[in-house]
Amino acid sequence: MYKYLVAPILFLFDAERVHYFVCEVLHIAFKIPLVPQLLRSMYTYEHPDLVQEVAGLRFRNPVGLAAGFDKNAEMVDELEALGFGFIEIGTLTPRAQPGNDKPRLFRLKEDKALINRMGFNNKGVEVAAAKLRHRKSKILVGGNIGKNKDTPNDQALSDYLICFQELFDVVDYFVVNVSSPNTPGLRELQEKEPLTALLGELQKRNKEKFTPKPIFLKIAPDLTTSQLDDIIEIVKASGIAGVIATNTTISRDGLKTSASEIANIGAGGLSGEPLVHRATEVIRYLCEKSGNAFPVIGVGGISLPSQALEKRKAGASLVQIYTGFIYEGPGLASRICKAMVGH
């Protein structure tokens, strides 16, 4: 029903406004007695084969919601009812920031894709931490952290450490985001020297805690083979938990959407089905080249259960969805889970 009735109506309106509208509707509906239970009965699929142990954490199923949907941790309880095994909030920055100018989120319906240049819009890490302290569900939550737009790269470590400290007691794992194309200069932190320093210091602070939390690195799909080799080396050397592959791409290759429309949209990260094969290639390379030395969370272009299975076959321990969730609707996580049983 969603794909053929609800989505065509929603897609008539501005993508970002629709996002907030849908979140508000879900938030209000969740306050109605029995609605949470109804949603769970419709969208949650449980099976012993789905339970996964990754990086010392026990996931009820391997299908998560990627960062970007619930930036400020305002919807964790509601999203838990839609069948996810884990939810990633953020990207969060130390200080609140409005993000880039609107419009900044665009649908490419022919490609089942999105282009966004949101720019880490969020209410600040303290607000999200406060929300998480009052959540009711026990679903695993990851904290995706970044730096403020006006923080120079040579001071970026301070921003990541602030977010790390503020979220430590309220999230189950961390994701270091140095791969968004929408914060100027951010991807320069993926280079070997600054990334080694950043992850090394974060892991040092992590080990000082009584019970350290898994730290994952989220990488771009646009990295070269030699850069991926560096990533493998850095992850091993730093001792962080693993990698999330991949973020959005700056490539516009192979799109069905007209070149003129793409030009009119302008800059931003592309997500959705055009990314599916490249993301899987990166996952496979990391797993094979490292000898499965660390877990990889696979994300990028998953809108069908078969695409999630491909990422698992490539070596992904867990998968995440976002754009596919927008196009396919709230039943996608449970459909993927059903397909994964026995595979």
Helix and strand run: HHHEEEHEEEHEHEHEHEHEHEHEHH
- If classified by CATH, what would the architecture be? Alpha-Beta Barrel
Question: How does the helix and strand content classify structurally?
Answer: alpha/beta
Mean pLDDT: 97
Largest sheet: 8 strands, parallel, barrel
Helix content: 25-40%
* Structural domains: how many: 1
CATH overall fold name:
TIM Barrel
Uncertain residue segments: none
Give your account of this protein's structure:
- This protein is an alpha/beta fold and 343 residues long.
- The protein has one domain: Alpha-Beta Barrel (TIM Barrel).
- Helices cover 39% and strands 16% of the residues.
- The protein contains 13 helices and 13 strands.
- The strands form three sheets. Strands 3-4-7-8-9-10-12-13 form an eight-stranded parallel barrel, surrounded by four helices. A three-stranded antiparallel sheet has the order 5-6-11.
- Helix 6 runs parallel beside helix 7, helix 10 runs parallel beside helix 11 and helix 11 crosses helix 13.
- The two termini are 28 Å apart.
- The mean pLDDT is 97.
Brief summary of the model shown:
The protein contains 13 helices and 13 strands.
Q: Would you spell out the secondary-structure blueprint of this structure?
A:
Elements: H1 2-10, H2 15-29, H3 35-43, E1 52-54, E2 57-59, E3 63-65, H4 76-80, E4 86-92, E5 105-108, E6 113-116, H5 125-133, E7 140-145, H6 156-167, E8 173-177, H7 192-207, E9 215-219, H8 225-238, E10 242-245, H9 259-265, E11 269-272, H10 276-290, E12 296-299, H11 305-313, E13 318-321, H12 323-328, H13 332-340
Parallel strand pairs: 3-4, 3-13, 4-7, 7-8, 8-9, 9-10, 10-12, 12-13
Antiparallel strand pairs: 1-2, 5-6, 6-11
